[in-house]
Design a protein that fits this description.
Number of strands: 15
InterPro entries: BamC_C, NlpB/DapX
Structural class: alpha+beta
Protein name: Outer membrane protein assembly factor BamC
Pfam family, one: Lipoprotein_18
Radius of gyration: 23 Å
Largest sheet: 7 strands, antiparallel
CATH topology of the largest domain: Alpha-D-Glucose-1,6-Bisphosphate, Chain A, domain 4
Organism: Rhodoferax saidenbachensis
CATH class of the largest domain: Alpha Beta
Length: 365
């Protein structure tokens, strides 16, 4: 066999390898403490961390975590029952209902994110909230001939120009079950100028991109497997979850409001997930009173242009000062109304309240 034939066969083998890679898993996240600094969009600031679950010695990668688990020979957490997990859906929102106490789910869910390649930037069991660091989905990088041939040698030179983070919220429902919500936040790198700098480099900045409900559904499916379902059962449940009625914007007693044809429990869940998705920080919540206490912090980057949330709270290009609001969920039978209150609990009828109501309604749809 001459050298030309050998080269041809090598190229064919590499190409076939690239094709098989395209058919492999479409989710492959990697968090790293050395990730590029992002011009964070408004209100991606974090609440103070609960350090009870902080790993001694700093952040840990997914591979390091798994190696440590093997070294310590930690016994896996067994599922209490295959049938104690189910998925529910309303509009484009999905969540899990698990017949287990919330405190029994915290560590398995935390392990789940680390096993999927994420670092945790927030870990607050007292609030029932954990949040991953920004990570890149490496499965989105095309497996071209050069990258497939050289493999990891040039892997660090490739980037999707996108970053994702996920917030997980665990709550108890009225029946003693636990509800698990996963919300996605996305960023993308865009060019800020058409030309190049004096050194020949084009300048870029990071800006928000829409939440991806299907990506949330994929991680819910994976979490169902983590909690004891077979992959086939989890896939079937996600596919079988049907959409429920959508939200509408209206005016009730002179106040802008979101109207939901659903009872309190479902409306409370959906509003909470919408707030997680759309950039508000939930500082506290009072389920008995039906109140979410939220805050909004404007962007601080001097080089960033006004983003979506900046425009939400300001008609001009100037960023708005930090503001606190209460989001009230009121229900009567199988109907619910969502209103915006100011920090003192008084009805908010301003243009800001109208925009907040629209953002919540649009996300719930």
């Amino acid at each position: 066999m001459n050298s030309t034939s050998k080269v041809f066969l090598l190229a064919a083998a590499v190409a076939l390898g690239g094709c098989s890679a395209l058919e492999s898993d479409k989710v492959d996240y990697r968090s790293t403490a050395k990730a590029p600094s992002l011009d964070i969009p408004p209100d991606l600031t974090q609440l103070s961390k609960d350090t009870r679950y902080t790993v001694i010695g700093g952040a840990v990668s997914a591979s390091g975590y798994q190696a440590n688990q093997a070294a310590t020979n930690k016994a896996p957490i067994a599922a209490l029952a295959v049938g104690d997990v189910r998925i529910e859906r309303a509009g484009n929102q999905r969540w899990l209902v698990v017949n287990r106490p919330a405190e029994k789910l915290w560590e398995p869910v935390k392990d789940f994110w680390q096993e999927n390649g994420f670092l945790l930037a927030m870990d607050q069991s007292n609030l029932g909230i954990m949040e991953t660091d920004w990570a890149e989905n490496r499965a989105k990088i095309p497996q071209d001939l050069i990258r497939a041939t050289l493999g990891k040698l040039l892997d660090s030179l490739y980037s999707t120009g996108e970053r994702d983070k996920f917030r997980t919220r665990i709550e108890r429902d009225a029946n003693g079950n636990s509800e698990i919500f996963i919300s996605h936040r996305g960023m993308q790198e865009v060019y800020t100028n058409t030309g190049a700098t004096a050194t020949g480099d084009k300048q870029t900045m990071w800006q928000p991109r829409p939440a991806d409900p299907e990506l949330e559904a994929e991680f819910l499916r994976r979490l169902m497997v983590k909690l004891g379902m077979t992959p086939e059962q989890a896939k079937a449940q996600v596919a079988a979850s049907t959409a429920k009625p959508t939200a509408t914007v209206s005016t009730v007693n002179g106040q802008p409001a979101v109207l939901l044809e659903e009872g309190f429990d479902r409306a409370w869940r959906r509003v909470g997930l919408a707030l997680d998705r759309t950039g508000f920080t939930v500082e506290d919540r009072d389920r008995k009173q039906g109140i979410y206490f939220v805050r909004y912090v404007a962007a601080t980057s001097e080089n960033s242009e006004p983003g979506f949330f900046s425009k939400l709270f300001s008609g001009s290009g100037k960023t708005a000062p930090p503001a606190k609001y209460q989001i009230a969920v009121r229900s009567q039978g199988e109907s619910s109304t969502v209103n915006v209150l100011d920090a003192a609990g008084a009805p908010e009828t301003s243009a800001v309240a109208q925009r907040i109501v629209k953002v919540i309604a649009d996300d719930i749809k």
